[in-house]
Design brief:
Order of helices and strands: EEEHEHEHEEEHHEH
CATH class: Alpha Beta
Low-confidence stretches: 6-10
Strand content: 15-25%
Helix content: 25-40%
Mean pLDDT: 91
Structural class: alpha/beta
Largest sheet: 5 strands, parallel
Strand order of the largest sheet: 3-4-5-6-9
Number of domains: 1
Shape: globular
Radius of gyration: 17 Å
CATH topology: TIM Barrel
CATH superfamily: Homocysteine-binding-like domain
């Protein structure tokens, strides 16, 4: 967690990085990346949502992981990745494609499965154990950062930390 930096009239937090996530269109994330790089010198993660196409490895606008990786590397991103989408199993292929297309670290932040609408309420099917069961394959596919997006709960992330051997925060 970043350390607080006191301001003249209030406390504020300093940022360690900027995450651009949930984009579907390559030109939009490229514009956002260029704007952030022009405004500050923080590392930037460029992440799109993948889950469309025959293999589930395209954005809803048809962008491939390779296209994202090439754009991100060419425009100074610090990491490239995918978030949200169909769930962690689907991101194994995405992580492989990102890793093969770019030297940048791969960022994966998957949903806890596809959302399900039941009795007017959206739920996600993957509990913490099912979610973290997919993490070794994500790491083997090249993911350097793994986290949780929609449907993950305060129980998912400690399970993930335990799996990768990180101590719990104090």
């Amino acid at each position: 967690m970043p350390s607080p930096t006191p301001g003249p009239t209030r406390s504020c937090w300093s940022a360690d990085a900027i995450v651009l996530e949930s984009f579907a269109e390559l030109e939009e994330i490229e514009l956002a990346l260029l704007a952030v790089k022009a405004a500050c010198h923080l590392p930037v993660v460029a992440s799109m949502t993948f889950g469309s196409g025959p293999e589930g490895t395209r954005s809803i606008m048809g962008v491939s992981p390779e296209q994202l990786a090439q754009m991100a590397a060419g425009n100074g991103a610090a990491a490239v990745g995918g978030n949200c989408g169909a769930g962690p199993e689907n991101f194994v292929k995405v992580a492989q494609q990102l890793r093969q297309a770019s030297p940048l670290p791969v960022w994966i932040k998957a949903n806890a499965g596809l959302p399900v609408l039941s009795a007017g309420k959206t739920t996600f099917p993957m509990g913490p154990a099912d979610f973290v069961a997919c993490v070794p394959a994500l790491i083997a596919a090249g993911a350097a950062f793994v986290g949780g997006c929609c449907g993950t709960t305060p129980d998912h992330i400690p399970a993930l930390r335990k799996l990768v051997g990180q101590p719990a925060p104090r």
